[in-house]
Amino acid sequence: MQYQPLPRLDIVSDDTANIRNYLLPFCRLKPGDIWYDPEGRHLVACGDAVDTAFIRKLFPDSPAELAIQDPPYNLAVFAKRSVSEFIHWCRKWVYNSFDILSDNAAFYVWLGADQNNHFQPLPQFMAMMAETPFKSRSFITMRNQRGYGTQKNWMAVRQELLYYEKGKPPFTVQYTDIPKILRGYYRMVRGKRTENIERSLAPTIRPGNVWVDVQQVFYRMEENVNGCYAQKPLKAIERIIQASSAEGATVTDFFAHAGTTLIACERTGRKCVTFDIDPLFAEITIRRLEQYRATGKAGWQRSNPFEKELRNYHGYILEQSA
Length: 322
Ligand SMILES: C[S@@+](CC[C@H](N)C(=O)[O-])C[C@H]1O[C@@H](n2cnc3c(N)ncnc32)[C@H](O)[C@@H]1O
Known about the structure:
Elements (H helix, E strand, L loop, with lengths): L1 E2 L10 H10 L10 E3 L6 E4 L5 H7 L5 E6 L13 H18 E11 L10 H9 L4 E9 L14 E9 L20 E3 L2 E3 L1 H4 L10 E2 L22 H11 L5 E4 L6 H9 L2 E6 L2 H17 L11 H4 L8 E2 L2
Parallel strand pairs: 3-12, 4-5, 4-11, 6-10, 11-12
Antiparallel strand pairs: 1-13, 2-3, 5-7, 6-7, 8-9
Helix pairs in contact: 3-4, 6-7, 7-8
The structure holds S-adenosylmethionine.
């Protein structure tokens, strides 16, 4: 079987510039365009998270009940920004999110860091959020199983996820698959000495605000989308959706990329309104939904979203799998 990876499509290097240019004509959306799901549930667009007029067009009738935002941080394709420029830019899409959220809505933001370039915007981001009408509710750390820089530094295994509220959104307690194992908290119940596990409502633990049970996406997983470099695990996004929205609710994501929020909405019975500034990622997002509906597969583990088109592209080298 042939393994057909794609390089990171966001970085315009000598290797990828040609592939990007070759693939762009196959993308259905150009900036400002909207794709309406033929099954009438979701909406995918191509546009800029700081463009208020464009975003309002995506929510003509009803607002969203949940926003899950995963902004890029100083990636090569976008002009490198200082932390203060980054925060200034964030403030704009944060207010755009506030604008299209219902009166009682949840707002989640994944916030990365680039330690090598001294880019650690978390404290400044939190300070900026304190000046907005959102109310801070939690600061979650998702622990990755794999890390970077193991030899000369502490291995980087954390991903930060901030949770805010607008009004009073719903919250449904979630559980992991991890069995409760801590014993020893005894209490007398109706004359009988009971142990904490006997008294608890569920046999497994709650994720709390440190998630240790989510595998980050890598090439061996079915949900992997080759060509995407920053895809979040479906399990994490589904957990957020199930905790913070009701079935049938509208969920939005301004930074679609691999379309993870869209697939999570499809699988959990929510409506998704999502977009990306890059036509390639907007197209990948649509194709991922189409492939999920056609095959039940959440990604392209051994292939990629543009497999058919790339068969005719001579600069693309197919690698033999191990
Ligand atoms: C970190 S990725 C999001 C990953 C996503 N959560 C997933 O699981 O696939 C960030 C995405 O934001 C897009 N992006 C960058 N600047 C943007 C902007 N101003 N408006 C909308 N999308 C933007 C990039 O093209 C990239 O695909």
